[in-house]
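Morning!

As promised:
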Amino acid sequence: MSSKPFLRITEPLPDLVPGGPVDFDELFARYGRYVARLAARLLGAGDREVDDVVQDVFWLASRRLPTIADMIQARGWLATVTTRAVARRLRRRRFRRLFHAGPLVHEVPAPGATAEQRALLARIYEVLETLPTDQRLAWSLRYIEGEPLDQVAALCRCSLATAKRRVTAAKNVIDEVFGDE
Amino acid sequence: MSHQLDEAGFDKIDPLWGPERERAVRAAIAQRAIRRQGTVRTAAAVTATALIAVGGFALWSHRAGTVVADSLVPATSPSQGAPAAEMASETVSVTKLSLDTVLAPLPEHGGRGFVLRAGAARFSVPHDEERPFVVTAGDVTIEDLGTTFTVRFAAVDRLNVAVEEGRVRVHAGETDTEVAAGATLEVPVAPVAGPPVKPQRAARAVAGSWRPLAERGQYEEARTALRKAGPSAVRNDTADLLLAADAARLSGHPAEAVPYLEKVVHGHGHDPRAGLAAFTLGRVLLDELGRPTEAIEAFALARSFGGPLAEDALAREVEAASRAGDVTRSRELALLYRRLYANGRRAKAVSRFGGLD
């Protein structure tokens, strides 16, 4: 399994220069879509949940603007906050499922995908739903987002060793499931 | 697996983020900001109100301390024709330093003499050659020589005089001692036979102090003040006895509440609160002191007063009898409960304790 470097979270955008104050409108206009896509891929869900995550992330951003150095660093900061917001949501989802209060399968929004790809995505997210949140996020960041392990550790706020362990644990489950199929 | 995942098309995942959703999210964020502003405003208003209340209370407490003292000290000027500024500078300031301080003016000194009978007091006095300021404590006399000083009963037979500014002259027994600023003098003191000393006034001062504490819910402090003041501090009326019982009970000393409650039950049986006192007594005896046999009697008495507590009293009586091991009585009482309160709210507990299950 190879990571996807074209999806690096912290890669700076070419038209941005370091420094300078961060304006909320500009931040939202530039990174709204990025946060929504990241949330959708980590959650494996579409409209409502993604909107909620975007709202949570930019609500926090609106209050922390003075602490964000510039638009380049803002991207990494937003990625971290999005990861945490998604983690909270995934934990809540697992908790709800304990009481059979949440759906088992979520519609993955992949408009350009073929029918086979949609089926495969649905199956992958179904398996991911069974994993502990920390392992799921670590694996998603590594193999869906293509993050290097040190970045996975930073985003998950854990040590590199823990990040490796989580990714490996999740990978073993996924390998086992898809190896059998 | 690797092959399968590579073909999964994660890069095709797109939540279709568009201007509509962007607007909706932005509107929701704006809404949250408004809600937060409202919350912050409310919190600020509550905090400001609390601060004003605390400040007001602190000011009131401070003024209360000095007003009591000031009322004892009519500010007097040495001469009738003195200008206003001089009169102000002539003001004597007296502060009681403890709750049990008993301080009385000496009428013959025209506001420039006091007798300290208990506790401690601080005096700040401008010197007047013609009308010296005098404090007497027992057989000790302290005369100011232009100063601020504190007189304190260190013990029943020891007096402590501490001088902050200026000097005082302390006359104790046959000796006169001048005490300068920064110095402290401790002298033996004996009560004076002449003027009538009223020690009960100190007791009264302390006795009065437990009541507001208990009323404010400061039960531990109220109990301490009550113990210091002795049993005479509680008046023999229902309200005072119940308040004292609360102070004892709610400060974690239930055994001390029993005599007060018994006094209400047996001494003020005609009072409408006697039933409540009996019920409380039963609860204290059963729940807090583990004395179920006595609790049975208390609950029976509470029941005999009738009223809204009667049902609960009977139910607790069943429980008390059960805990005391009196199976026959608990069963009889449980049957009585069932007869009187067929759909009583304590029916389940009563059946359990009465062995009717």
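The CA atoms of residues 55 and 136 of chain A lie 22 Å apart.

Hope this helps with the figure draft.
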